[in-house]
Write a structure and sequence with these properties.
Layout: H1 2-10, H2 16-30, H3 35-42, E1 52-62, E2 65-72, E3 84-91, E4 94-101, E5 112-117, H4 123-130, E6 137-140, E7 155-161, H5 165-175, E8 178-179, E9 182-183, E10 193-200, H6 209-217, E11 222-227, H7 228-231, H8 239-242, E12 250-255, H9 257-270, E13 274-278, E14 287-294, E15 299-304, H10 308-314, E16 332-342, E17 348-351, E18 359-362, E19 366-374
Parallel strand pairs: 7-10, 7-12, 10-11, 12-13, 14-19
Antiparallel strand pairs: 1-2, 1-6, 2-5, 3-4, 3-6, 8-9, 14-15, 16-17, 16-18, 16-19
Length: 376
């Protein structure tokens, strides 16, 4: 029997049961670590591992914004320009997840990039812009999102404000790549007629301004830059004069909730098509708040203006999270009893005591509306 086994091993045909025993032996010898843990140390980006990425470059765009270039793991499935990804990074020993738009099309070198604007009190955005360094490992999820180009429309108007330019610049860079020889225009993009109305507080605060100006100079787009300190806050009623053929274009907009709400009302009244991507949620007036009890026995008191996610984290409760905008569903938890209030529209969701089915709620955009219990 041993001779047969030896012959099989020498022939390079290790029986499956024998390989299994070897693996079990290796795992027993390395407990609490298993061989995969050691592979993670030496080949964290390998195929079959949890999807990760390595930060390879951090490039300042403005004093409070930076482009983060990442080498993704082998199982990265790619993306469509305009999509976003969720990135997980450890800050002060706690893994935080956020969603950021990809700022390019598919790249020959396989790398991906996001551009992050540090917002006041933004834990992750400030860490990425001001503290992260090349070599840092991050966790990734596959790209998602429907804010992408539709091949049925080639006469487009982009309306962007602040960091709302990030998904749009990914689309534009894919259509019109910029090289040392200038901006390229491929056959697939030659029929596009694009106007970009970009809004920023000041010109120095305008992310990707050089890219937009280069595309405008090359005739790839028509850029209409608006700066609050020069032109005042954009009135969407002025779009008809800024873009005389507005009615002939499909409008794609990304920016703060106030701008998108105003665009929505304007385009609906005019019967115009509008596609939006929103980075911040509009909040209604707060309610009364209440207590939030978790299945692990922790109970916190939360006011009616603070999302349950933020209130729980402030109290030291580790919570699942993602975009924190009510989009990615990364923060959803089952509510087994009580009421919560959607801070975007004031809608109350209630689960009565004794109901057999829990209701899943997004903790990033819901506040306590009385006492509630979450299965977490």
């Amino acid at each position: 029997m041993m001779e047969d086994m030896s012959m099989t091993l020498m022939a390079g045909r290790t029986p499956r049961s024998f390989r299994h025993r070897l693996t079990r032996l290796a795992e027993a010898a390395t407990t609490p670590l298993v061989p995969a843990d050691f592979l993670d140390l030496f080949a964290p980006l390998r195929s079959g591992a949890d999807l990760r990425g390595r930060i390879e470059e951090i490039r300042a765009e403005t004093p409070d914004a930076a482009t983060i270039v990442i080498r993704p793991g082998a199982d990265w499935a790619g993306h469509v320009p305009g999509q976003y990804l969720r990135i997980g990074i450890d800050v002060n020993g706690v893994r935080q997840w956020r969603a950021y738009s990809l700022t390019h099309g598919p790249r020959p070198d396989g790398r991906i990039s996001i551009t992050v604007k540090a917002v006041p009190d933004g834990l992750v955005s400030n860490h990425l812009v001001h503290e992260a360094v090349p070599g840092t490992m991050v966790h990734l999820e596959q790209a998602a999102g429907e804010f992408v180009l539709n091949s049925d429309h080639d006469r487009l108007l982009f309306v962007t404000a602040g960091s709302g330019i990030t998904p749009v610049i990914g689309m534009l860079r894919n259509l019109f790549p910029s090289t040392d020889a200038g901006v390229l225009r491929f056959d697939r993009s030659k029929n596009y007629d694009i106007v970009v109305v970009h809004v920023a507080p000041t010109q120095p605060d305008s992310i990707f301004l050089r890219d937009l100006q280069a595309l405008d100079a090359a005739g790839s787009i028509s850029l209409i830059a608006r700066y609050d300190d020069e032109h005042g806050v954009l009135d969407v009623a002025d779009l008809a004069s800024l873009v005389p053929d507005l009615a002939e274009r499909r409008t794609l907009a990304c920016g703060p909730a106030g701008l998108l709400d105003a665009l929505g009302e304007h385009h609906e009244s005019a019967g115009l098509e509008l596609v939006t991507e929103q980075f911040r949620t509009t909040r209604v007036e707060p309610g009364d708040g209440g207590t939030v009890a978790f299945a692990n026995g922790v109970t916190i008191t939360a006011d009616g203006a603070t999302p349950i996610l933020d209130a729980a984290e402030d109290a030291g409760v580790l919570m699942p999270s993602g975009c924190r905008m009510g989009i990615c569903m990364g923060c959803v938890l089952p509510m087994t009893q009580g009421s919560v209030r959607d801070l975007r529209n004031g809608q109350i969701t209630t689960v009565d005591p004794g109901e057999s089915v829990a209701i899943k709620v997004q903790t990033c955009i819901n506040a306590a509306a009385g006492d509630c219990h979450l299965d977490h």
